[in-house]
Structure formats: C-alpha cells, structure tokens
Specification:
alpha+beta; seven-stranded mixed beta sheet; 8 helices; elongated; iron; aminocyclopropanecarboxylate oxidase; ethylene biosynthesis
Length: about 300
C-alpha cells in the first residue's frame, strides 16, 4: 500500500492541479501522507534529531530503564494501560517554555526554535492548501484555530527505547490525535509507527530524505464536517534500536470554538416540500448551487 507523497515543489508549476488533487485524496481517504521538497532546512532537521538523541542518552535513558515500567516488563507482566516511551513536551506558541525544561542544552533549544519557525510556516501553508481544496477562504483554518493569540503550537519529543519484550507492551497505544495538523519528524532507520486504514494496520516506514510525515487530527475532521479524517494510529515497541519521534501539533488555541465550516454543511431544518419546490426549478442544473439555495431557505431568507 503506497502512502501518498505530496511534492511541494510541484505546487508552483504545471503539475499544481494534480498535486492539489493528490493532497485532497490523501486528506479525504487516508488522513495521513508524506511531504517532500518542503523547503525546511535539512541540515537544521538533522541537527535537531542529533541533539535530541544526545539529550536522551545523557539525561533520560538511565532513568527510563530504572523506572517501574521497566521493572514490570522484567517480571513478564503484560502492560495494557501504559506506553513504552520516554518523552518531554515543548510549547512554542503562543508562548514558549523551551528554556524552562531542565537539562536541555542551549544548542538544542536554539536548533528547535529555528526548526519550529520554519515548520509553522509549512503548517500554515498546508492549512491554506486544505482550505483551497475544501472550497473555503484560504485563512479559514488559521482563523478558526486562532483564539486571541493565534493557534497553539507544541511538540512532543519521544524516544521509543529498545524493548526486551515488545509483545507485552505498546510503544504508544491506539488513538487519534485531538488537535489539528500534526507534522512528524521521525526516525530514518527504526520503524514502529502504524495507521489503521481499510480494516488493516499500515506500517509507516522510517522517513528517508527528511520527508515530513503529516496526519490530521480530530479538529480538522470536525471543521471539515467529516470530509477530512483523523485516523487511529499506534507505535509498536521494537526489539532492535531506539525510535525517534518529534511530533509538532498545529492546534486550535484553548479558547477557540471549533465547529463544522458552515459552507461545508448540507442544508438542514428545511421542509421537504420547500426543497421539492426548489428542485422542480433546478432539476437539470448543478446540485451544489441548489444546496446553497436550500441553505438560504432554511435560514429564513
């Protein structure tokens, strides 16, 4: 099963229409895809990954393998209510806590800040492309997410450590993401991420050539009135190697009110006879404008 790959370099040329159609298909039928040629500095991406791994080795690894979780696994207990992961969370917008996290080096903080500045531009570009495909104003998602201080942006940094008994525990249990657009910078060698599609778990390969993996969260499904999907996914524990995951969430502000975009809603609260009257005049015309007229009728105009 070939995961959709969106080549951003094709959005400015003759292949724009085909690329936009592929993006729409990916959001509608898959809920996840990869982006290449995204113009984020690949040296910066590599630096972030390297510095995160150094931080894990120096500050997190020893503590993880001495944890109660590890002790339970050594007793051969099946763990169904916990995850085999070592993590920390960073906030970037509307305000940052990165310099408050104990043990993070200045180099790591600076690298993450630079990476996130570029990634937010990508997330907002992607949100505009989604809006275009949905027939919405290009700033609709950003404005819907904004609240008083703009969208909320945070990053979950996770290492899924080498696991001696992967059959007893999940790296991360099955879930959908609560928020908006998730952009994942992931491991280049160690697998483990899986998404559920068409009744099967699809294995997501490690990201080669600094592709960014994207999935849509619950709020995009709500805003699009179910047209774009948030998809259940999980991380499997692996016996060989540590898997790196740097997942950045472009989310609504806490006070943002999210609801389906009115333009995407079907007509509702309309008497069938009134619809039939409209239909009799427009039967052989396009359905879309008829639905728009029906919405106007339903609103009392």
């Amino acid at each position: 099963m070939e995961i959709p790959v969106i080549d951003f370099s094709k959005l400015d040329g003759e292949e724009r229409s085909a690329t936009m159609a592929l993006l729409h298909h990916a959001c509608e039928k898959w809920g996840f895809f990869m982006i290449e040629n995204h113009e984020i500095d690949t040296n910066l991406m590599d630096n972030v990954k390297q510095l995160v791994i150094q931080h894990y080795e120096a500050n997190m690894k020893k503590r993880f393998y001495k944890s109660e979780l590890t002790m339970s696994l050594e007793k051969k207990e099946k763990l169904s209510n916990t995850d085999w992961e070592s993590t920390f969370f960073l906030w970037h917008r509307p305000s940052s806590n990165i310099y408050e996290i104990e043990g993070l080096s200045t180099d790591l903080c600076n690298a993450v800040d630079g990476y996130i500045d570029q990634l937010i531009n990508l997330a907002e570009n992607l949100s505009e492309l989604m809006c275009e495909n949905l027939g919405l104003e290009k700033s609709y998602i950003k404005e819907a997410f904004s609240g008083s201080k703009g969208p909320s942006v945070g990053t979950k940094v996770a290492i899924y450590p080498q696991c001696p008994r992967p059959e007893l525990v999940r790296g991360l249990r099955e879930h959908t993401d609560a928020g908006g657009i998730i952009l994942l910078l992931q491991d280049e060698q160690v697998p483990g991420l899986e998404f559920f599609k068409d009744g099967h778990w699809v294995k997501i390969p490690p990201s080669k050539n600094n592709r960014i993996f994207v999935n849509t969260g619950d709020q995009i499904e709500i805003l699009s009135n179910g047209m774009y999907k948030s998809i259940q996914h999980r991380v499997m524990a692996e016996k060989d190697g540590n898997r790196l995951s740097i997942a950045t969430f472009y989310n609504p502000a806490g006070e943002a009110i999210i609801s389906p975009a009115p333009k995407l809603l079907y007509p509702c609260h309309l008497r069938f006879q009134d619809y039939l009257n409209l239909y009799s005049k427009t039967k052989f015309a396009e359905k879309g404008p008829r639905f728009e007229s029906a919405k106007t009728l339903a609103n009392g105009h």
